[in-house]
Amino acid sequence: PLSSRCCAPSGAAPAMNCRAEVLEVSVEGRQVEEAMLAVLHTILLHRSTGKFHYKKEGTYSIGTVGTQDVDCDFIDFAYVRVSSEELDRALRKAVGEFKDALRGSGSDGMGQISLEFYQKKKSRWPFSDECIPWELWTIKVNVVNLANEQERQICREKVGEKLCEKIINIVEVMNRHEYLPKMPTQSEVDNVFDTSLKDVQPYLYKISYQITDSLGTSVTTTMRRLIKDTLAL
Amino acid sequence: AMDTDLSSQDRKDLDKFIKFFALKTVQVIVQARLGEKICTRSSSSPTGSDWFNLAIKDIPEVTHEAKKALAGQLPAVGRSMCVEISLKTSEGDSMELEIWCLEMNEKCDKEIKVSYTVYNRLSLLLKSLLAITRVTPAYRLSRKQGHEYVILYRIYFGEVQLSGLGEGFQTVRVGTVGTPVGTITLSCAYRINLAFMSTRQFERTPPIMGIIIDHFVDRPYPSSSPMHPCNYRAGEDNGAVYPSVEDSQEVCTTSFSTSPPSQCVFTVTKAHFQTPPPVVTDTLKVPVMGLAFSHQLSSSRLSYQPAALGVGSADMGYPVLFAGGLNAAYPHQLIGPGKEGGVPPVPNQPAHGSQADQERMCTPLEGVHYSAATPSSSEDTETVSNSSEGKCGSPHDLLETIFIRKVGAFVNKPINQVTMANLDIPFAMFAPKNVELEDNDPMVNPPESPETESPLQGSLHSEGSSGSSTGNTHDDFVMIDFKPAFSKDDILPMDLGTFYREFQNPPQLSSLSIDIGAQSMAEDLDSLPEKLAVHEKNVKEFDAFVETLQ
Questions:
Q1: Predicted TM-score (pTM) of this structure
Q2: Which of A120, B183, B444, B549 satisfies CB 3.0 to 4.6 Å to B107 for a cystine?
Q3: Residue ranges making up the domain that contains B46
């Protein structure tokens, strides 16, 4: 089931709510990549726009987002992703690392991959820019081992059905029309969107993952920041 | 009633959005049941035919069917647009698989900005539709169609009829978008009892050659529209051929302003185009080969080139621009953001009449080139949420309102202030020089508007929640994230701010919880007599102990 919470510190400073959604899947080892890509691409489909072209006096026009169907090889499942090779490459890279880490020693086949959307807030020197998350998706993965071909066939179908449910869950969240960053002026656009791709413009995002070791404690192996991260002083 | 709150321009825009949203919805659904993978290209420069900033092709027959079903109406309460997907076997058995419903209910959102928020949410809803159409059971069936069965679609308008879906059908909601005239809802009811399919063993049968099957299945509604296959045969002996579409296909490029979203402006171009003779007919034709598709569909799928199809090309026809959210009759009253009521001095107040006559244009390829005052992009506004808020520019900015008017190649009305800037309209030579429609078209000649006041006068303050949903509280919040210098800690790899946030709300101590406290108090009280008795017994020991202390 999809659980959601808002993480909002109640300290002295008022803070922006960051909504968090959690999805869980159990897959076979060779299905990890496709399942993660399906979920991440579905989220990014909803969180990407066409490229903005700013004109005089604050108007902008928006480019066109194309889409394409992707068939999975190891799952009876197909999904739609944004037509952007750069974006696909970036996601595949992250998912590939996650898959390798899951396979690595010390892992019991459990881990999670997170997709966080954030905004940047420029700070004055000597403080570095801040990253303020506004939406966090966490996909918990449990890798199962199967004994024979028959089980694998059933798993193909079952995981396909599960992913259908996840897509429906994601769409439900998107449909709530909750907080989205304001459309930025030209000077602010890089604080809200990732403008580095040439054909589409997703909201600023970062992907990270964690692998749970066999003791059940969470061991942060690496944080991978793919795009436009800020460096701490 | 409720329309008085919505300016006529907004209303026109909204109706247009809903109309094209309905057409695009049908396209997405039918294309998702064609049995092939769909692929369209992203384009960083907006082209005129990309409604909702999404590359969704328009199959002409599908548009034709949808327009026929809608018959000029829009979805309203009790009048829903339905796309029915069904399956028909080569033996003639047929079964309804899904009904996709585009409905309107009465719940209005008066505050929402038509030209901006509604548009963007409709775009998001189309993306959701793209995703959801791949996860219902009919998708996988449609991918395997061709030999033993085909997938058909039928569009109807009116009351939703779900009885053909069998027992226990399930519903999935794609999404909703609130508008000032009602809430648009898109959902799908789908059959889950596919038993009749799964028990059959499908062997490869030789394809059926050239049989025309009259597929008018028994329907309870005699007036219902005929079914159409989702995939088509490459143009052989066709029966009826659709006449080329004579009304112009409207396309839209939107341009947005980062000032208040009410300043979204649109370019609407009208494209005259000749559709190639479509191959679908009113009767079902079983495809000759399993994956036979008409030429136009396969070519359209390979690369998204709207001009190549001649479909929906923004480059033809005469571009017309109208300002969303603004009174079309008062184009010079583009008012900057941040004015709390009141209209700032506007230098040019052209006569109403001349305004109505003016055509406003822009290049079809780009977008709009003007807007109102620049939001102040002072670097002092650090708060993210206020990045595009209207700090109103000076009145000087207002004076810079420009109408850039570019002329299409075949507009022959006399116009003032023509900037012959950009005549590189591809395929202009193919566009018929057919201008008689232009005179009657309200887009080109907006009807004389009554003396409405500028819709911006009412609410000129920047909407706090432009771009966001009901986030009226979000603008006030600023996240302050502490990153003091030299504070990096390798042991616990998180910065102070994250640490603070994470550990800020520890669970409450159980002893402080009232219930447990009360419980233990009661227990304590009960056990007191016992304890006292024990202590009394040991009184000598206690006394001795006290002695040692003295």
A1: 0.58
A2: B183
A3: 8-190
